[in-house]
Request: fold
Amino acid sequence: MTTKPQRLTRVTPDRHALPTTSNMHQRQAAPHYTNCTAPHMDREKPRHRRAGGWLSPRHYLGLSLATLLYPMLGQAIIVRHDVADTAYQQLAQQERATVSFMRPRAAPTPETAATSSAAANATAVKATAMVVEGTGTLVRADWVLTAAHVAHHLKIGDAVTYQQRDYRIARIDIHPSWRPQQVNGDIALVQLQQPIADAEIAQLYRATDEQGKVLTLVGRGDVGDGLRGVVTGDAILRAAHNQVIASQTQWLQFRFDQGADALALEGISGPGDSGGPALLRQHGQLWVLGVSAWQDASATDWQEGKYGVIEHYSRVSHYHDWLSAILASASAHGA
Reply:
């Protein structure tokens, strides 16, 4: 896999530095949960996603400035404008460790039908009857790694989809430091009621040498390209490559590049992929290094999915001990 040596030199501390504990709220002025089509919002405000849509301006009432730092709920893969989309779909066929959290698409309301043209309605309905709420990675045959802001909307008994088969949720563990509408601790584990016997299992990455590695990002949901940004949703699984440009404490960063700086199958997460993996295949073993959390679109005037956006993944190595403890405890108790 080709690396992009120039990428690391393009990150300036002033513009793209990862937030630290002391400056988290100032630096994360524009994260959005990686998941849904966005309405127009003032550029001074971050855009946040939740299950079912973006938070509208009225949801900001009563929130302190410190809470206006949200990730995006779910994302799919946004691709290069000059590479065939089928190449990203073919790359995804190699991945057998990814699951999806999906729900039926709501029927148009009479109000929507009355105020929208037929063409607009067709675009809104898109190509599928299902909405991708988020993505996850199998780290045991019956355990899924995902984002806390995805798991927050799940319930015991909800369906988890793997290769068009549904499995039910038995247990949900969200990192104790995570709070709704904030980005810290954005990681979770979901246990299934029965294992998925034919899946590939990704191992939790513990080393802290992620920077500079080219990883595979996987998801299904809204799709688009670097010129247009997020376009539509079709629930087709896609995968792309991107390089870790920075790592610090709880985050891994990726930038969506184009031209000479881009990888052959360069891509970035898009709506529907929150919780999805950043994977590394090394010495015959599949490893998960990151979990899709939020995107900084300040470089694109808050237009998600366009060239120049910075994607943030929760860093698995930072949470390795907590994740391992949950899995070990469950195993010890026969869960």
